[in-house]
Amino acid sequence: MRERLSKIRAPEKDIKLSVQITHSILILLFGIALGALSKQLDNMSINDAIPWQRILGILDLRNVFSELAIWLLISLAISVFSGTPLRASLNVFLFFAGMCCSYHLYTIVFSGFNPRRYMMIWYGFTVLSPALAFVCWFGKGKTKVSLVIDTLILTVMISECFSIGLWYFDFKSIINTLIFIGSATVLYNTPKYTVIGLSGAVALSLAAKAVLF
Fold it and tell me: Whole-angstrom Cα distance, residue 182 to residue 78?
């Protein structure tokens, strides 16, 4: 099994254990920081008279961090740039665990309520994230299997970043468009694979809409 997976994408070797531990700790801290930041943005009242708050309002970061797309992009980047699929699983899990715990604790301590039901959804996603990260790691390979994985990932990102139907395609926002471009960039291998992956993702998105509606 390991040999078959290595043919899809070979894991990096000779990475020092101390470097791996440092990277994982930094990813955990990054998740903690983003979880607290996203809740702080929820609680913040934007004052357009203050320049930096006006910029936050224009970027609409409060809504950006309340949607799934930005978290999918970050976890995708963490996954594919990890040295091995197992490292990808661990790092993505640490990121979501740190983010969810800090967001939850920040809400309880500073907002005065416990969003237990809402957080159970995110904790469930955190439990599933290692398996998803393991699969996503192989999307950075240069095989047909990698291309299939890329296509499925981009299909999900299209559904999150754009409004798409059988007869329309609409842009939600500049930020969401940039998130999608970021996802395609993270997965980029060759121009040919990128074109095929994007075309397949659009086709799958339209097919999904046709089935659902």
Answer: 13
- pTM (predicted TM-score): 0.91
pLDDT in tens, 87-125: 999 999 999 999 999 999 999 998 889 999 999 999 999
- Using CA atoms of 171, 77, 80, 100 in order, give the dihedral in degrees to the nearest 10: -110
CA distances (Å), origin 209, targets 16, 65, 67, 165, 203: 47, 26, 20, 6, 10
CB atoms within 10 A of CB 109: 9
**Consecutive H or E run containing 170:** strand 169-171
d(CA 213, CA 210): 5
For residue 164, what is the enclosing H or E element?
A: strand 162-164
